[in-house]
Amino acid sequence: MAEFAYEPEPAGGVVLAPGESAREIAGKSPWRLAGRRLLRNRVALAAAGLFVLIVVVSFGAPLYAEHIAHTDPFANNLNGTTVVDGKKVEVLQQGGGPLKLGETPIGPTWQSNYFLGADNQGRDVMARVLYGGRASLLIGVGSAVLACLAALLLALVAGFFRGPVDMVLSRLMDLIWAFPIFLLAISLATVLLTAPDGLQWGPVHVDPSSLWVPTLIIALVYVPYVYRPVRGQVLSVREKEYVEAAISQGASNVRLMFGEILPNVVTTVIVMLPLMIATTILTESALSFLSIGVQPPKASWGTIIDDGQDLLYSRPWVAIAPGIMIVLTVLSLNVLGDGVRDALDPRAKLRIKG
Amino acid sequence: MLVFVVRRLVSLVVVLFAITVLTFLIFFATPGVDPTRSLAGRNPTPETVAAVRHQFGLDRSKPEQYVLMMKRLFVSRDLVSYGNQALKVVPAITAAAPVTFSLVIGAAIIWVVLAIATGLAAVVLKGSIWDPLLMILALIGISMPVFWLGEVANLVTQDRLHDTFLFSWVPPLGYVPLTKDPWQWFLHLIIPWLTLSVLYIGFYARVLRANMLDVSNEDFVRTARAKGLSERKVLTRHMLRTSMITFVSLFGLDFAVLVGGGALLTEVVFGLPGVGLLTYRSLVALDLPVIMATVIYGAFFITIANALVDIVYARLDPRIRPA
């Protein structure tokens, strides 16, 4: 799989973005500079707007379900009826064809109730897609943020203390790195998500449908991808004069790590974050599609596409709609990520993997 | 060079060993998870569970279990599935591997050709509307989940437009071995090939374009132009060839990842009985010995391919050989 690709430049130094003059950037802090560049990038702003819109709509799912669709998108509705164009119709209709076998859920009504039709259980697909977006976004953003924080912390510790600490941490990361991401995620998810009664570790009980399990699994497999470049930067920043100066003033280790080094490596993580969320959302959808991601009764875009597989030829919108949401979300994050990278680090190149 | 190769091979062996240990631990020693719980779904008697536990050595200590599993996987090659005792894991993987290879090789040819074409077109047409348009298309290709794209492809080619002249040639889902009927093999794989290659066309076209624009400012490109070479020669002989270094090393890794199990989603959507589908079926049945074996197969394939790429790369480019 093509991973998000980023190769940070060695820290330090000011770079002009294309079309910028030295006079324009004189006397501005790097953050203000990046902010200005981002605000001038209309494509990136539009992408950010689209992403925010998707987040708002997804988190408004309960409002939609309750006040517009008037349905519970998680309850079976096998014998339910609804009103379309003033006529009462069954949600699960008798199957078509000469034999009238089976039942076909109602198709898109393009009205407030069953806007995109119903799934096999007679549940409102539109409401489920919105709820699914909530889960997908929570897991995608949560796992990317967790992976970045963990990697940042580990890289700071490893790069600052060096020696045996670095040795142990880096070998551990190498081991996860050596494992193909997708296979590692599948292995962990198979084991951790399929116990029928959830997991019991001493006093800690983890419900199988908890979103924490997929979030933590996905976060874990991506930690080395952030750890590697950040550790390299910590090692180089640690040798800078201002760090030496802080040491000579008697600064504590904590202050050195978080006060002197952290602000100089954090841009790398910020550049990676949007691209990383795009990747984790795709990973989550793939795991959920394989039924080893979000577990029922909860739904995510991936599980809805999985549900829609059986209805593909009769009611294609069940599978198509969540896919369109994934494409829009990931596309907006990729465009935004490119914009953030150009703003914070105009010299950055697409990374050579390996 | 020899020292480099030996060191790389030693580290390869260490990594392979670590992978088997880690995989074993995940599947058979995760705390709070019973590795025989999938049997409970079929209501076995306690005697059956005990017999299976004994058969797979699960009643022994963890290190003993590990050695036993690996012996049955690599030495005697008679590790069997939980559910179907007649299904030997190693022959099952060997039988499925050609399907995965067929899928990945065809997709790889398509994505290399189309990615180079797209990347070159974007560079040549830079400044016109086509460059950003191509790059947006590439970005959309990267943003699509492959399993969803496959379902949409099925919807269009198997159902909605199947009775039109466009897709009436598309055979039903499934696989026909190359040795049995090469033409049917080809027909069955065209749609899966295209689906699998979309993501990589987008990614490689972007990388190629960025690389070529990078080298377009280099001295040797200016020299080539100053010598009076035609623009086409500068583009293909100088810029493209230099940019291909990145392209080729990326290709080696992505190809390995796909053969090693990355094509799983495509195989599931199109019903191609490759290693990925084998993994998926055993995953649904929680058939741990089979999943463990396919994961180890994939991880081995990818790690070994990585080592080969490193060695070939070092042979081609002496600068990256560590002292």
Describe the structure.
The complex is a heterodimer of chains A (about 350) and B (about 325). Chain A has about 350 residues and is mainly α. Chain A has twelve helices and six strands. In chain A, the strands form three sheets. Chain A has a two-stranded antiparallel ribbon. With about 325 residues, chain B is mainly α. Chain B has helices at about 1-30, 35-40, 45-55, 60-75, 90-125, 130-145, 145-160, 180-215, 220-225, 230-260, 265-270, 275-285, 290-315. Chain B contains 13 helices and no strands. In chain B, α6 packs across α8 (about 180-215), α7 (about 145-160) runs parallel beside α11 (about 265-270) and α8 crosses α10 (about 230-260). Chain B is globular. The chains are: A mainly alpha (about 350), B mainly alpha (about 325). At the A-B interface, α6, α7, β5, α10 and α11 of A face α1, α6, α7, α8 and α10 of B.
Summarize the structure.
With 354 residues, chain A is mainly alpha-helical. Chain A contains twelve helices and six strands. In chain A, helix 5 runs parallel beside helix 8, helix 8 (212-237) packs antiparallel against helix 10 (253-289) and helix 10 packs parallel to helix 11.
**DSSP strand (E) fraction of chain B?**
under 5%
Pattern of helices and strands of chain A: HHHHEEEEHHHEEHHHHH
Distance between the termini of chain A: 13 Å
Which strands sit side by side, in order, in the main sheet of chain A?
1-2
Q: Class by helix and strand content of chain B?
A: mainly alpha
- In total, the number of strands of chain B is 0
**Helix share of residues of chain A?**
55-70%
Measured by residues with Cβ under 8 Å of the partner chain's Cβ, the largest interface is:
A-B, 52 and 64 residues
- Regions with little confidence, pLDDT below 50 for 5+ residues of chain A: 1-5, 350-354
Instruction: Summarize model confidence as the mean pLDDT of chain A.
Output: 83
Residue windows where pLDDT falls under 50 for at least 5 positions of chain B = none
Largest sheet of chain B: none
How would you sum up the major sheet of chain A?
2 strands, antiparallel
